[in-house]
Input
Amino acid sequence: MSCDPTKLKTVKTVDRTGIHFGLARVPGTGRVFVGSSDAKVYAVDMAAEKPEWKELGSAQGMKHEGYVSGVALAGLFVVTGAYDGNLIWWNSETLEPVRKVAAHSKWVRGVTASRDGRFVASVSDDMLCKIWNAQTGEVIHVLTGHQPLTPQHYPSMLFAAAFSPDGRFLATADKVGHVVVWDVIAGKQLAAVETPLMYTWDSKQRQHSIGGVRSVAFSYDGKLLAVGGTGQINNVDHLEALARLEVFDWQENKRVIEHAGDKHKGLVERIEFSPAGDWLVSAGGDHEGFIKFLSLTDGKVLHQDKALMHVHDFELNDTGDGLYAAGHGKLVQFEFKTPAPPVPEAPALPTES
Output
């Protein structure tokens, strides 16, 4: 079936108390791995009639000690990162830990893997991005393109990272809206784009900042880079601004789409491009959640709707006509398939006279 974003519907919901920050899916299946606020990692088969939450095992202290905020699948391994600064490699079949690495000195905000399973990248509040050999757990590059302090001399944060589909490029993005594109093999910076309206500094009330880029994604051909966050905020105690998206031709340092938001508030926590390159889908929220589809032709909204929860992460399915999402208290499977036309009835056979 082809996909039609206007046909978005909820297919299945699985509840569990807590906040589910990260999600990775095994291709060709409904099996997902989820990182949660209880410091645990779970495997859930969303294709099962009654999906169960199976906790991944722990051995010899190989477990997380805080929010598990990043989850990525790299070949046989599930790699997770957490508030404790550690990365853990898990066997995706046996659900047992393989190795634990003291990866960062501060909160690991995100973990992502290249599609070929060769590389894993982690980003942290220590403002470092590290590229790892996904199979051995060895560090390949330590990338230092983000400043540790904001322009107002407060600690910054490094929230997001994403590989291009061919694994050649990596994008990283921070709290003040600075986005860097890297050559993965060389470990060198290729370009940078700025999204300053995704960062708010309140100099009057309490000298406090909020916002930042929370998601990045490359198009399938690697030419476009989407950046998601939130707009300028009046009350820095709440995510009251509209969810914001900007799309760049990063090689030309040219913004091609600027979507300041029109309905849903909060953070854009995740973005993916359609395989055909005609739209992108984003999701996030504040105390409520949303899913939004934008046309890449003109930047207009194709469809948007409330989600059942603040969405922290999602992945498109293999055919690009559905997605699996994790968020506050829920896992949700969505579809946006175009209904197949009815099959006409076969004509009646003539009867013998």
Observations:
- The chain has a mean pLDDT of 93.
- DSSP finds no helices and 28 strands in the chain.
- The first strand starts at residue 9 and ends at 25.
